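Still learning. Show one?

>
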Amino acid sequence: MIRIGTRGSALALTQAGHVRDALISAGLEAELFTVHTPGDASQGAGTPVARIGVGVFTQTLRTALAAGECSLAVHSFKDLPTAPDPRFRLAVPPRVDARDVVFSRDRIPLADLPAGSMIGTGAPRRMGQVRALRPDCTVVPIRGNVDTRIGRLGKDLDAVILARAGVERLGRLGEATETLDVDTVLPAPAQGALAVEVVAEGKENCSEEALYAIRVLDHEMSHRRAIAERAVLASLNAGCTAPVGAYATEDSFRAGVFAVDGSKRVTWSSEGEPTEDIGHQAAEYLRAHGAMDLM
């Protein structure tokens, strides 16, 4: 039996459930194993995401995995620290849409919201881009699960911006006002991708069954795209809360760093297949053009 380690939030359980179902479809027995993380507690307390640090959602899961409490762990790839951890190997299942979505009062698009509207979002990356797009609106940081954030519409917020992936996985995409094109708001590196980790070969609690499971789960292009995007973060020594965006397709790549106050941005784009080297090249360009002053 493969035990799938997951956080206990509705979104995390849904994501892990997709992994479980994929493994069962491949003829493996699998079940979920819930691990409570400090990140869940900070989210419940409403602590701004920029203050909680890198790895707050992932470290407890990794500890449980290394200890043999579960066979594999499911993360949102964008939440993992960029530094490689030699204790583990990972797979990336097929990625879902990486873009952001807007929920708004009366389904008014972001560009048409009245001046003075209150817009909530959790990521400094989004805050900087939305402030640049709508300097006449007020953008505020929010925490909480998807339902909690959407529930603030019509109360203290006129619009909420979230990652489309989580909304889609929870079945609430039909309620969204619009999906923002990547030319409008650049997604976070690896947004929409899951990372499924297992204990690496030769390490204590390594499982041949778990190693086989990640071979079943891995989707090559999703994996390559996510790795290329995360190389930007790694080269900039930035974490998942930095105002950095990156988005790769099968034949193009773009990246950017955004001042949180919306005053400035540095962007880079190229054609070609997504590779880790492309991500490093993007980061070098961004650094040379003042990106570090914006973070």
